[in-house]
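Lab notebook, bench 4. Still working through the backlog of constructs that have no structural model yet. Next entry is a single chain of 335 residues. Request: give me the structure tokens for it.
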Amino acid sequence: MQDFASAAMVRLLVRAMHAHGLAPPPAPHGLHGGPQGSRVPLACKRAVVEAILRQGGPAMLLRLAQRVDLLQGDPVHRALMGAADMAALLARWQRLERYVHSRHQVSVQALGPGRLQLRHHARAGVAQPPLPTESLAVLGVLLGAGKALGVRALGVEMAASRLRWDADDRQGGGLAGDLDGRLAQLMAHGRVDQWVLHWQASGARAPEAPPPSAATGLCDPLPWPPLAHALARHVLQDPAAPHTVDALARQAGLARRSLQRALSGTGLSCRSIVAEARARAAAQWLLQERHGLAEIGFACGFADQPHFTREFARHVGLTPARYRQAFGEPVQTPR
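Model written out:
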């Protein structure tokens, strides 16, 4: 799977290996601290996973994948951490899978208060199911992101077994040293692709404040009316969110038609405001050479890479790659 989600996953695992005293395999092309681009060879990902299994076992893989905090400062982390609860987090993960045209996906089998029944499987038309290690890594990221969002009492049950694992329990939900053996047994039989996530249901949290690289005032210089500026600042707080007309109307405290009429009188629309805000947020990210183009497009709310390229060029006059080439930070060659 040579897509940027895979690269972000490998980057996370490599950083987590360093943090936990494990030795990652040599980084490709002289990269240090984990791959920084949008794509990584499949062999690289497999080498990292095999190194983790060899040095720590499958439970270590599950734990390392939870270290989403080590991606802080990356666009993917920013996009995932904008979620207000577990359901919103899953929706963002699913959009990430669609963005990169992943061969595999996480589907919801059942949803209830404080409970999600999920399955990690191949997309329609794809013959090969995900490897057990891929399923474990995805599960780890969802658990780690949920913990980072402040979800309380988060845990998981493997739907095909009685194995139960609490995300806050480093000893493996009471299974202690047996967790590795149980996981290895389930992996050998391909039974780690169905999960039931459970947590203490409570009110949705407020999304984290935007970092300086996603400043909410990027549209302020535009000659827009106050209503449009207020909406743009709201979009820039979390460009990855689904900023529909109805959602923006609720934010403005107006009926849908009232908002549309108010904007049309100034030659604007909800769509044009969202598109401009996302393009400016992307331009800000593009000034930092270390972030992959596809990751930036996802974090800024674009549907896929062609949509990002097309919309960015329409607003800025250059494709993302040419914009970075003209204005971005120079590439630092590792010594």
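Notes after review: The CA atoms of residues 19 and 132 lie 24 Å apart. The radius of gyration is 21 Å. Flag for follow-up if needed.
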